Structures are given as C-alpha cells and as structure tokens.
Amino acid sequence: MTVFTPTPPLRLDDPGLGDHFLRLVGDGDEYGAVKVVTTLHDQGVPTQRIMMDLIGPTQIRVGDLWAANEWTVAREHAATATAERALAAIAARNTVRPTRGRITIACVDGEWHALPVRILAEMLRLDGWRVDFLGPSVPGQHLVTHLHQTGPDAVALSCMIPTRLPRAHAAITACRSAGVPVIAGGRGFGPGGRYAQLLGADAWAAGAEGAVSRLGGAWPPPARDPLVHAFLGNDEYTYVVRHRPDLLTGGMRSLRASYPAMASYDDHQTDATLEDMGHVVDFLAAALYVSEPQIFTDFVDWTLEVLRARGVPPVALHAGLQVIHDQLRDYPTALSYLDTGLSHTSTT
Amino acid sequence: MQSAASSRVRTDGPAPALLRAALDAADEAVLLCGTVDDEILLVNAAAARLVPGLTPGGACPLDGLTGALATGADSFTDEYAGRHLAGRRRALDAGHYGWYLRDRTEEVNRAAALQAERARTSFLAEAGRRLSTSLHQGRCLRTTAEMAVAHLADAAVVVLPADRRRNTWLRLAEGGRIEEGTVPESRLADVPGLVEVLGGFPPIPSRWLDAAQAPEWLGLGPIGALLVTPLPGNAAPAGALILARRDRAFTPDDEILARSFAARAGAALSAAGLYREQADTAAILQADLLPPELIQLDGVELVGSYQAAHEAARIGGDFYDVFAPNQPGGDTVLALGDVCGTGPEAAVLTGKVRQTLRALHLVDADPTAMLRVLNQALLQSGRPHRFVTLVVGALRRAEHGRVRLTLATGGHPPPLVLRNDGQVEEVPVSGTLIGAVRETVVHPAEVELAPGELCLLYSDGLTEARGGPTATDQYGEARLRAALSTCQGLPATATVERLRQLVSDWMHGGARDDIAMLAVRAPGRTALSLRDGGAPNESPFALTTRRVRQRS
Predict the structure, then answer these.
(1) Identity of the residue in B501, B531, B549 whose CB atom sits nearest the CB atom of A63
(2) Which of A69, B46, B251, B372 has the CA that lies 20 to 30 A from A119?
C-alpha cells in the first residue's frame, strides 16, 4: 500500500489527502478520519471547504468503488458511518448563531442517503439558518406534523433515487399545502432537477452550495396554489404499482420455465432475484409517473455497468426485462419504455 | 382647433333652423363639424348639457376629442366633469361630419364595481386558502401581514393579546422585511383604537382615528390613515390588525374588506393557538415516553433505533432503555420490550414498565429478578390484559476488550449475536410473557462478545414486517439472520442503520408495527475484517448486495 503520511499543514488540493481520507473511512478508522478534518480545521480551513472538497467527494468515490465491485456493501456502510463521525466532529465546532429563519431538512420516505443532506444542514447552519434535520427516510406525515409544530421558512427535501419520486411528490404537495415552500435537491429529481418543477417544488439546487445561495436570495418564492401540481401518473402507472406482486410472481414463473437452473435456487437466491425484478418494476413505475422514459433507460444502463463490473452477462437483465414486458401487453407506454431497455441490453 | 382665421361666428350658417330643431330634440349629443379646420359648427342641446364648455367655433374642452382629431381617429373616450364620455365620428357630406357623444359613466362604474368585487372575492379566497394551510401561529401571523400589505395597506402590524403583560407584535411594511418584537401591555393605549379592539369592543371607524397619534414604537413612520381591526378568535379576540396607508384614506368598503379578511386571519390564528396548546401538552407527556438518548460507555458501542408505526405520534408500544451503573465498575442494564397494544394506552404502560425497571436497577436486581418483580407488579396493578414481552441484559466489560452480557427474556424473541466469522447465533434464553401468569419461568443466559462482535436486541416488528415481492410476506428471522451476517465488521451504528434500511425496503414504505432495535458491540479491529468481508453475489443479476444507488 502506498503510504501517505499526513504531515501538517494538510492541503485540501493535495490529491494524496483525498486518497488518504478515503482509505481511512474505508477502514472504518474513525479516529484517523476525525483527526484529518480537525487538523484541517485547526489550520484555519473553513468548515465549508472541508465538507465540500473532502467529505462530499470522498462519499462519491465510495459509491463508485461499490458500483465497480471493489468494495463490499459492508465496507461502503462502514465508510459512510465513519464519514458521518468526521462530519459531526467539525460540525460540533460550529459557533455561528442563527440570524436567519428556520429550515427543515429531510430525506424523502424510503431514501437513506443521508450524508449529502447532513452536509447541507451544516452548510446552512454556517450560513446563519436554524436547521432541523429530521434524518433519512422521513415519512410524509411525520414531516408535516413537524411543519405545523415549528413553522419553518423552507423545507429542503432530498431524493437521490427516482423510484422515490411518487413519495417525494406526496411530500412536496403536503409541505406546500401546509404553507411551507420546498426546495428540492438530489439526483433523483433528474438532470438539472427537471422533475422537481413538475412535482411542484418551489426551487431546486444541484448541491449544498447551490441550495445555500438559493435560500439566501429571494426567499420565500411567491405563494402558488399547491394543488396545481397535485396529480401525476396515469392508468399505466396505477396498473404497474397495483400489480407489482403479480408482475413479480408471474415474472418468476416465466424465468423458472426458461431457466431450469433456477429450480435449484435457495431462498436467499430467490429473494435476491425477486428484489432485482422489483427494481425493474419500481423504475418502470417511476418513469411512467413522470412520463420520462429516461429514468428507465438510465436505470438499465447503470445496471448493465454494475453487472459488467461483476462479470455477469447482460442477458440476465435482458431476461428480467422480457418477463415483465410479456405481462404488460395492453400498456403501450410501459411497453415502449421496456422495448428501449431491451434494445440497450441486447446491443451491449 | 380654433385659429384666429376661424374665429368668425358661423353658428347658424349652414344649418337650417329645422335641422337645428331636429338635433336639439334628439337625446344623443351631436357636434356638427366642418372638414375645414375641423371647426365645430353646431352643438345640439344634449351635447351642451353633457359638456357645458362646448360652443360652436369655441375651444374644445375635451382632450380625447382633440387627440382623436390630431391622429385622425374615428372614436375617442374621455372624462369630463366626472362623466365618462365616448364619441364616434360619422362622415355626413363632403364638407361636414358629426361627432356623436355618449355618456358611459354608469357602464364604467358598473364595470369598475364588478372588477373591484372580483378582486375582493379573489383576495378573500386566496386569504382563506393561504391562512388555512398552516397550524403554526408564527406562519399564520406572517401570512396575515404579507396579505394585508399586498392587498389592503402600505404597512401592517399584527398585535397578539397580552401574555404576562407583554404583547407580541409582527410588522411588515411594503418592500420591507418582517420584523417581530414585544411591547409592554401598558403601551397599547398609545395606539388609537387598539385597546378597544383587543378588549373585545367594536372597532372604531378609521375616520375617527388620528393617524398622527400612532406612536413611534409601531414603526410605521409618517402615515396618513390608520385602521385598527379585531382578529376574531374563540370567544375572545385572537389579536388586532393595524393597517396604515401613507396617503389614501380607508373607505367604508375598505373597512368592510379588512374586516372580512381579519375574520379569516383570526380563525386561522385561534386554530393555530389551540393546536399549539395540544402539541405542547403532548410534547410534555411524550418527553418521558420517547426513546432515550443513550449513555456513552467506554469500550462498548451502544446503538438504539425506534420507528413508531404511527409516525405522527412517535410513541407506541415498543421501547428500549439503558441504565448507567449504580457505582463505578457496576453493571449497565439494557432493556428492550414490546407492550401489548398501540397508541397512547400502550405508551403509558411503556412508561410504567421503564420506570419500574429503573427502580429495580437502583436496588441492583439482576435481570431474572427484574422480570419476576415486574411480573408481580403488572399482575397486582389490577388491570387485566396488560402484557409485555421483554429482554433485559446486564452488561459489563471483561478483559482484552471483551464484553459480557447476562440476558433474560420474558416471552420476547431471543437476541442474536453476530460473531467475527460472520456466523449469527441465537442467545439460548427463554421465559414466559410478563404480566400474564403468576408463575414466571425465566432461563437466563450469558453471552461474551469478542472485539468486533455484536449482540442485537429487537422487537418482533422487525421480523413480522410485511412486504417483499408479494407485499404480504413477513420479513422473518431467516432474512434477519442473513442480513445481520452481512454486517460483520461494521460499527454498531452502521449495522442498525443497514437493518433499518433493509426492512424499510422490504416493507416498501408501509410500516404497520413499531420496530425497536438495540445493538451492543465490543469495538473491534474493524479495518482488518472489512477489507475482505461482505456477502457473496448470488443473484442471477449478481446484485444480491445492491442497495440501489445511482451512479454519481
């Protein structure tokens, strides 16, 4: 292993420091990781830069390492937990008194990627906001109760995965119906945040810094009728969601018929296969919900890449798409999305 | 129009007397003009009544008509002496044309009244919609001020009834930011009409209020008109709305509109006040029932997690607690349990059980004794069908970074232990339900955790979570054990978070039961175990371990 000896002064623009920090969090070395960030802070590096230039980018590399099959999911979880400890260590040094309004931050129900949102929470605190961070996977009801009890000036809602868009939509509508404007963030809202507006969000920000400057500008935005954007989806979306169990069990039956080897699968393997097909159905439903085929094709392309890293031929995914396709005869939009997905899996 | 050359009087020149008589008899106002120099040749009686300044050959007092002539337009509208006029030009012969004037004052007034009525209606509708959204008093106050300044006045101050002899106020001036503060109740008398309104008396019409008397603390600056309106509440005013205008006076219509708006604002404010009282009460009652902040122990990782099925209330039938050692080197006691039922009733029982356990810990009862006494206490409480299932553990550190646990259960799923080789073991404890039968049977067990090993206490909400591909399957102990075995080498926080995530994905968002977890871990050599740990990939898609994560 190449050894980077962190000798002060540490420099954020030294790529060696990034590699070192990645190694520390990957080893679950909480002491080492905290030491790096507190040393930087002692040297006078602003907390914002430590979060934006070290902790945030490291987390992205952690995700990449998992996708490339270089890190196990356990190591990824350990790395995230360690990075959160490091973040908490410098956050504890924040002495900025709240001078602006109050902001509620939450991950949408079913969304567990909390680190980017924790960074946003700290960035906003440093900018003088009073911040309530409700955590990962916040059910809509809980969020709305909190809004009525605290009356914040904004809700910052994070969604990293498009399959959570219908729940994000419900949360956005509920927040705006409670009179609180919503700023959306996270990759789940699509390239350039284009689904955020469709779902009725008042604003969208690409990252923590964008959100800080948007909220520091002309806020609140003009009040609009929250019910204008209240309904999305169509009968195809409704069918796919309501028949999710049938689609999965029917799909499993077809797969067993075409792949006799599956007969010898144990429970664990069967669960895993069902879970994978569940993702196909969920991404299809999300694409139908916002009428955006790209959500589905992006999922297919990304899955192919993950498969390639694990030495699995694309035909596995192709078969999964095909058995769902075969069950949706009367749903032209769903079929056209699946056809595009199938063309991606057969040409790759 | 009138030049020196055309000043000659040609009043009756081209118009025979009969023509003149005919035009004077008409109701419509007519000006007869010559095409040369656009000179007015004849003004009929109706036109003279409508525009007294019009004379043949004289200067035209109608700017609209003058403008139409300059541009060659065939029609014009104008206002003259409070009347709205419209005129149309008609060619008559080669040398003459006529302007036909119409009084459209009533039409204009009707349209204006309709428009004003529509604006009032849409303003009140918007007020109703925006004010009804939030149950938070601060937000209602802000919305009230914002809407008042947008539609009714140049500045608005909302003053709330006194609380401990001080009144909270909130102010917004056009183009400014919202400001908030308090003022002693004794100063309210400085503002004309305010004491009456907050005292529940009828409001004083704006025209009787001297705007110049508005005190400096109101922060309104120089103003021309003042209106103080009550915000009606539940049998007592919810506050007062002070509106100020720089130059325009408040008309009686304005006062009526302000009062209609204030009625909506007052209703919203009183609802928010009631909600806050309830929420405050609930918060005080909940404070003791919520999961505790866990104590930090040297050399032991301790992590709890609680998800209530009724998320809005955040209290329910599952609980956990940790009690610090009574003396240095003593045992730390953990408890995790599940009382029958859900909702407030279950929460109250939970509170009693936790308090009883705490007291038993103070007298150094061991886990088995705790369960026995708790059983007696519940049976003697005289209220039947109040059961609880429970795990109690006494924890102490042993040599070489190991952690030793004595565990006892009463009708509760046995804790699981994750060993360093990835094996998951069930702790061999058993015991009967607590609070159900007089004679309890408790078989405690000892567990020793080497560095890096973890013991998980959980409630059956975790294994009985329904979901999966069919949406009705239970998560089950087999899946829990499999999931736990993939957590080998993880810090306890990451393990608990991962289990929460897995079961949440399993349920697909539909939590029906409380889920409590409490993990104890002897901190270990994380770095080594992580590098080659983790689950094998067995799915046909090879994505067994995947939690969906989009490419960054």
Answers:
(1) B549
(2) A69
A74 and B546 within 8 Å at the Cβ level: the answer is: no
Residue type, position B243, single letter? L
Task: Pick the residue from chain A with its C-alpha nearest to B150.
Answer: A222
- B262 touches B294 (CB < 8 A): no
Distant-in-sequence, close-in-space partners of A95: CB < 8 Å, separation ≥ 6: none
User: A8 CA to chain B: closest CA distance, Å?
Assistant: 24
Amino acid letter at B36? V
> B499 is written with which tokens?
């289990």
**Second CATH level (architecture) for the domain B109-284:** 2-Layer Sandwich (3.30)
**A115 and A207 in a common domain:** yes
- If DSSP codes are grouped into helix, strand and coil, which group holds residue B86? strand
Q: Which of B134, B470, B489 sits opposite A249 (nearest CB)?
A: B470
Q: Where does a domain end: A70, A91, A112?
A: A91
Does the beta-carbon distance from A142 to B312 stay under 8 Å? yes
Contacts of A273 in chain B (CB under 8 A): 539-541
In a domain, A226, yes or no: no
Q: CATH topology for B17-103?
A: Beta-Lactamase (3.30.450)
Residue B335: in which H helix or E strand, if any?
Answer: strand B332-339
Backbone φ, ψ for residue A311 (5° rounding)? 70, 30
Per residue in B238-263, pLDDT (tens digit) is: 999 999 999 889 999 899 999 999 99
Q: Name the closest residue on chain B to residue A143, using Cα atoms.
A: B312
Residues spanned by the domain of A82: 15-91
Residue A332: count other Cβ atoms within 10 Å of its Cβ: 10
Please state the ipTM of this predicted complex. Answer: 0.85
Q: Give tens-digit pLDDT for B134-188.
A: 889 988 999 999 999 999 999 999 999 998 999 999 999 998 889 999 999 999 9
